[in-house]
Amino acid sequence: MPLNTEEQRYHVLDGLRGVAAIAVMCGHFSQQKISILGHPVVPFTQSSLAVDLFFILSGFVLCHAYGSRLAMGLSFPGLMLRRLVRLYPMFLIGLAFGAAGLLAIVASGRADVGARDALASLWSNLFFLPYLARDQVRDATGGLISSPIFPANPPAWSLFFEMVASAGLFWLIRLRGRTLAMLAAIGWTGFVIAGFWVGLDGHKTGFNPSIGWSLDSFFGGFFRVTYGFALGMLIHRWRAPIAQALCSRLPRWLLNPWVIYAIALAALVNPFAARGVLTAPTLLVVMPMLVALGTMCRPAGAGVTTVSLLLGSLSYPLYCLHYPIGRLLGLAWPELAAHNAAFTGIAAAVSIAAAYLAAKLIDEPAQRAIARLRAARTAHISG
Asked: 219 in a domain, yes or no?
């Protein structure tokens, strides 16, 4: 939902969220190597960092949306109900599309999972709970992915951790800034250790940030979301002194929304990780800096405002729908999946169109209807 209140409007954060969702989609669809200066690389190999940008944004956004309500007595069940109502409709649609793809894979014998296990995973995932089993299923581009905790729609793993963070907000909002900073530091330390653990490759060692989505790295996801979410909360709490400190030191062009979006896209399309040497500073500096800059600048002109709001409205439906759509497209048209560039373009176009229709016809009307029901209930209680 657009991050708008009467007090503040954060359109640029909406746009950042949309850029991150597009990067995640491209990372899942684009697996073809290209040559840069004689080195074979895969673009968007750093797109998993978009999830960390999501977590930082969530920490900021949920403080912005619920901080005053929690201070005024919003209960834990009330908070969780609001988060469930916000996330569940599109999650359920993505799971339904994903179920069709997963069952088609099982029926074709192209997965290390039987029908009973597939149905068990769907039942578990239906309640936002991970399915912890050692199975392999076919991904959108034809390869096998190992032990995803949401086999029908693998990107939904982050939504489980999003709900965990939402639950934690009830207590975290009461912490002092220094304690939150210590929590973010603990999250970062655990994130790095888990990232090095899964990054072990023979005798090579490197920091792999792509953790939390599979059985092998599941517990590392708790450190990952702790780092991003606590950092986002800190940016919200310290946004005034951060703005005061940065405004006098940074060039004005950095406060241009288009520049912020371009930096985010460049960081996520970057194919060079250097075994984590470039990944770590991106997570520690670039991602939180983008969010901080996004809170400081205002879209100048109707064009950038329109684009920012459009990106924001597309972000969550696109995140929920793109993988099941890509998988179904690859299953129905295997000749296309064999040509990765064409597959990426067509699957991305179909996913964006589906996300737009889902946002306009399902998600936004559902959220407006829920808001009206909540307002009517509040008025009835007050009366």
From this structure: yes
